[in-house]
UniProtKB/TrEMBL annotation:
UniProt KW keywords: Cell membrane, Membrane, Transmembrane, Transmembrane helix, Transport
The protein's name in its UniProt record: MATE family efflux transporter
Organism, as annotated: Pseudolysobacter antarcticus
Membrane topology type: Multi-pass membrane protein
Domain of life assignment: Bacteria
GO MF: antiporter activity; xenobiotic transmembrane transporter activity
Keyword Cytoplasm: no
Main location: membrane
Length: 481
């Protein structure tokens, strides 16, 4: 073990689990809510002042943005788990080697994605069957989003690493700064003022870009000023050299975890391409509902992220009883928080949708019907996310990917595609509960029957574990199909 000093703050291996998980989750939850609020405020400006075509453009472009986040989610999550396990084992030197290797790999990846995405923005929107009136707007918006990818990726990566080290407060503070800047800059850049020209929909994306750049450099400056134990200083350049074992874990474990998000985002892209066939009114309704769904999913994302960091530290400390109790408490929190939001949406469905859509149009009627079918299924999705966070903390990353692929691509998408001609848009809406229920059943079955506790992040033998895990969930998968 390294001579580097252990941080003074309590680790996630200590204290009562329910209380520790709750207070560790809160900054993540509030941060997610702030991000969704930021996106919703931007959508209000765009939808009410730039029109339904502009809102359709941002809905489609934001689907690509979710895909981009998914493309780096795996590497960031692998780094989070490795840092968490290192902290649980009280090995800060290994944690810094994880950070250094990740940064070197991460910067190159983000630059590549930005260059390719900027060049292919028009083709991406065309492949998604973007309505003709919204296509130029979506391309202008998406190109600026791609310019910000290196900053967005780095910012996301730093937040995930800090959470793996047991710090969810610092990322939240700088997220607040980012959101405030974005909200303040949006109307200024959309409509212009004085010497600042009116940029329209491109102004909304530019505001987000500026806010992320300022917050990223502010966070980096704070970490070095506070002498954070994971910072790499002069004379520690060896940490930035690629460690092959760690890189192998980042890629070998990170790719399957990233593919989980990509499986979800690709299914969303496929779904929105089906939605777009019904015209701008239905697409606008879907975009408005998507804004509300962001809020509904926030507790599941927050609890799942907190559970993963807590479980990783306890795996590193070999405290398996705490890992199991963390899973149970995480699922209970999901039912409490996600279920509460679902009830609120049912009670105030039209009023909430009216924030994004004109009250006298067809879009709000379509959106009400859509929400009534879909929103309850996010409780099931939350269970899947929490359980996946626990099993991934050991390095068992393939079975959660298989479960998502079955629920999304073998159940949800065929259901929607095959029935859309006879059921209309309802086939798309009902496919959401079907996929969510299937993924929850499969995830719980794997948690009970799988060999996930014997998986490893940095050691050999994961292939054999994975084979046994797949065999464990195969009978349940057959039943679900």
């Amino acid at each position: 073990m390294s001579s580097v000093s252990i941080p003074s703050r309590p680790l996630l291996t200590e204290g009562p689990i329910a209380k520790t998980l709750f207070f560790f989750s809160l900054p993540i939850l509030f941060g997610n809510v702030l991000q969704s609020l930021n996106g919703s405020i931007n959508a209000i400006w765009v939808g009410h002042y730039l029109g339904e075509a502009a809102l359709t453009a941002t809905a489609n472009a934001n689907t690509i943005l979710f895909f981009l986040i998914g493309s780096i989610f795996g590497v960031g999550m692998a780094a989070t788990i490795l840092v968490g396990q290192s902290m649980g084992a009280r090995d800060v030197d290994q944690a810094k080697r994880v950070v250094g290797t990740s940064v070197t790999f991460f910067v190159g990846l983000s630059l590549l994605v930005a260059l390719l995405g900027f060049a292919l923005s028009n083709q991406l929107m065309s492949w998604m069957h973007m309505p003709a009136d919204a296509l130029p707007l979506a391309v202008a918006y998406l190109r600026i989003i791609f310019l910000g990818v290196p900053f967005m990726f780095t910012y996301t990566f730093l937040m995930m690493v800090l959470r793996g080290a047991g710090d969810s407060k610092t990322p939240f503070i700088f997220l607040v700064v980012s959101v405030i800047l974005d909200i303040a800059l949006n109307p200024l850049l959309i409509f212009g003022w004085g010497p600042i020209p009116a940029m329209g929909i491109a102004g909304s994306a530019t505001a987000t870009l500026i806010a992320q750049v300022v917050s990223l450099f502010g966070l980096i400056a704070h970490l070095y000023r506070s002498k954070h134990f994971l910072c790499i200083h002069r004379g520690e350049g060896h940490y930035l050299r690629i460690d092959r074992v760690i890189l192998g874990a980042l890629i070998g474990k990170g790719i399957p975890m990233g593919l989980q998000m990509i499986v979800i985002s690709l299914s969303m892209i496929f779904m929105i391409s089906l939605v777009n066939r019904f015209g701008s009114q239905t697409a606008a309704a879907y975009g408005a509902c998507f804004q509300l769904w962001n809020y509904i999913q926030m507790p599941a994302f927050a609890v799942g992220a907190a559970v993963s960091s807590m479980a990783a530290q306890n795996v590193g400390a070999k405290l398996w009883d705490r890992v199991s109790r963390t899973a149970v408490i995480g699922v209970a929190y999901n039912f409490l928080m996600t279920g509460g939001l679902v009830i609120l949406i049912y009670l105030f469905n039209r009023g909430a949708l009216g924030l994004f859509l004109p009250d006298d149009g067809d879009a709000i009627r379509i959106a009400q019907h859509l929400n009534a079918i879909v929103v309850w299924s996010f409780v099931f999705f939350g269970v899947t996310f929490v359980i996946s966070g626990v099993v991934r903390s050991t390095g068992a990353v393939i079975p959660p990917l298989i479960i998502l692929f079955i629920s999304m691509w073998l159940l949800r998408i065929p259901f929607a595609y095959l029935l859309v001609d006879s059921w209309g848009a309802d086939a798309i809406w009902w496919s959401f509960p079907l996929g969510a229920l299937a993924s929850m059943i499969l995830s719980l079955a794997y948690y009970r029957l799988g060999n996930w506790k014997n998986a490893h992040m940095l050691k050999a033998g994961a292939a054999a574990d994975t084979a046994r895990d797949i065999a464990a969930i195969a009978p349940v998968a057959i039943v679900a199909e």
